[in-house]
Amino acid sequence: MAIETIKWQGNKVKLIDQTRLPLHLKHIVTSDLKTLIHAIKMLQVRGAPAIGIAASFGVVLGMRDSKAKSFALFYKELSAVIKQLALSRPTAVNLFWALERMKNTALFNRAKPVRKIKQALLKESLKILEEDKAICRSMGKNGARLIKAKDRALTICNAGALATGDFGTALGVFYQAKKEGKKFKVYACETRPLLQGARLTAWELKQEGIDTTLICDNMAASLMERGLIDKVFVGADRIAANGDTANKIGTYSLAVLAGYHKIPFYVVAPVSTFDLEIAGGKEIPIEQRSPEEVTALCGRRIAPHGIKVYNPAFDVTPHELIKAIITEKGIIKSPYKVNIKKILGCMR
Ligand code: MRU
After folding, report:
1. For 68, which of 73, 202, 225, 265 could close a Cys bridge (C-beta 3.0–4.6 Å)?
2. What are phi and psi for residue 324, nearest 5 degrees?
3. pLDDT tens, 245-269?
4. Residue 70 CB: number of other CB atoms within 10 A?
5. pLDDT for res 1
6. In whole angstroms, what is the distance from residue 184 CA to residue 153 CA?
7. Given 3-state DSSP classes, what are the helix, strand and coil percentages for the chain, each rounded to the nearest 5?
């Protein structure tokens, strides 16, 4: 996989500026916490696992100039940094999961000098990135078992290399299936309002030589009705204890359509995307984004001034519409409440 979305380089975070793709492959290289938080808010770095990785690096950046002489003072500063990062995006639970890991790392090393705690934080963030790479590969292998020769798979948003530390969640399934020599086609929904499908998924799948066709979001029903889609694979931003899944706005419509046309609908996500403290999808916080994302297209206004806008970034697919959830630990099927617990155990 040639795409390296996020990495730690010479005491700085280096990430692909995804708002510039597909026309320009530019990087943001920063040692500044505020710049990193801005990058998360503006979707320069995006996708649940990548947001988690970025946030963990954010903690390192925010704490490395700390002059605290005691753990109590260091922890006070750390809590403030974590609070700022936690406010960057509300839905992808990987953000909070990564911040929790960073907080626990500091607590675990509390008896050490501050210099050592800083080193431990960096080590933990690099571990989160490395673990994500292995997790992507396992999810890919588990999911590729579901791809058959000549399959035509549909996906939405970008759940690929650009959304993770390696080759992605839903798109990782395609990359692995290709590695295994399977021949199949992918249809990518453009994903309004911010066009992650058209800009990012189309870019990375094409680059990796996957047979990909881009469609507008409202074309999915017609494709399904004509028998041109065999399977749907999507990523996730947060999965509740009962399997209800929040993902990019438009995912729920695809699940309803897939259900109507009797097409299997699969979610691909790491264990870090499950939120077992949330019983069902209704409790998942849904990010509302700025009206300009809807009234403009690639910076050009397309709607009248003053028009009212509704712009939720995510929707929730009820578990009844999900055929299986593919994780690095295995494939989870209904009954989700029981089987999610069985596979996850107390691992989070
Ligand atoms: O708003 P975004 O672009 O961060 O939304 C991303 C998605 O909804 C992805 O499908 C999800 O994070 C899974 S990515 C592996």
Report:
1. 73
2. -165, 155
3. 999 999 999 999 999 999 999 999 9
4. 10
5. 72
6. 8
7. 45, 20, 40
Give the pLDDT confidence of 6-49 residue by residue, as tens digits: 999 999 999 999 999 999 999 999 999 999 999 999 999 999 99
Regarding the beta carbon of 49 and ligand 1, being less than 6 Å apart is answered yes
Active-site residue, 17 included: no
- Residue 206: count other Cβ atoms within 10 Å of its Cβ: 14
Closest CA to 190 of 161, 219, 149: 219
- Does the structure show a pLDDT above 80 at 54? yes
Closest C-alpha residue for ligand 1 atom 15: 159
**Would you say residue 134 has pLDDT above 50?**
yes
- Determine the pLDDT at residue 42: 98
Spacing, Cα 55 to ligand 1 middle (Å): 15
Q: Which residues are annotated as a binding site?
A: 46-48, 89, 196, 247-248
Ligand 1 neighbour 43 (Cβ under 6 A): yes
**In order of start, what are the domains of the chain with their CATH numbers?**
6-137 (1.20.120.420), 141-345 (3.40.50.10470)
Check 166, 217, 237, 244 and give the catalytic one: 237
- pTM above threshold 0.70: yes
| Res 85: pLDDT | 98
Mean pLDDT value of segment 280-296: 98
Instruction: Report how far ligand 1's centroid is from the alpha carbon of 235 (Å).
Output: 7
Kindly give the distance from the C-alpha atom of residue 248 to the centroid of ligand 1, in angstroms, as a whole number. 6
Residue 47 Cβ < 6 Å to ligand 1: yes
Cis peptide before 264 (omega within 30 of 0): no
Residue 204 vs residues 71, 168, 197, 264: alpha-carbon distances, Å: 44, 11, 10, 24
- Strand ranges (DSSP E) for the chain? 6-9, 12-16, 27-30, 152-155, 185-189, 212-215, 231-234, 238-240, 245-248, 265-268, 274-275, 296-297, 300-301, 314-317, 324-327, 330-332
